[in-house]
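One chain shown below:
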Amino acid sequence: METVTLQNQVKKPIALRIIMVSFLLKVFIAFGLYYAISNGKLDIPNAKPDYILYTAGLYIINLIGMIVSALNGKLQLFRAIIIFDFIISIPAKAVIGFVMAVYSFGLTFHPKVKEFFESKRSI
């Protein structure tokens, strides 16, 4: 008779949840700003609605890439997406995007986040 051992799945750490929720929040903020600026409800000098819309679209693509890389256990790709996210915030001068990318990148070095990615890779 064979014995089957089930591997204990590592739960998503709080630091990883914070990263994902903040990136999702960033998408909503970008679309909200686009809507407010393009309809004239908010006047920000030198704000270009087209840049904000393109940035929001790229934020969505980055969020999807982050989810896929987290599910596949690719920590280096996850970090590269965060760096790319910082870079795409430059044309829109998205200060919120800069701040969220910097602290999210820092959170990827948390030991529990590393453990989560390693457990996904070993499956």
The radius of gyration is 18 Å. The helical segments are 14-38, 49-72, 75-88, 95-107, 111-121. Residues 14-38 form the longest helix (25 residues).
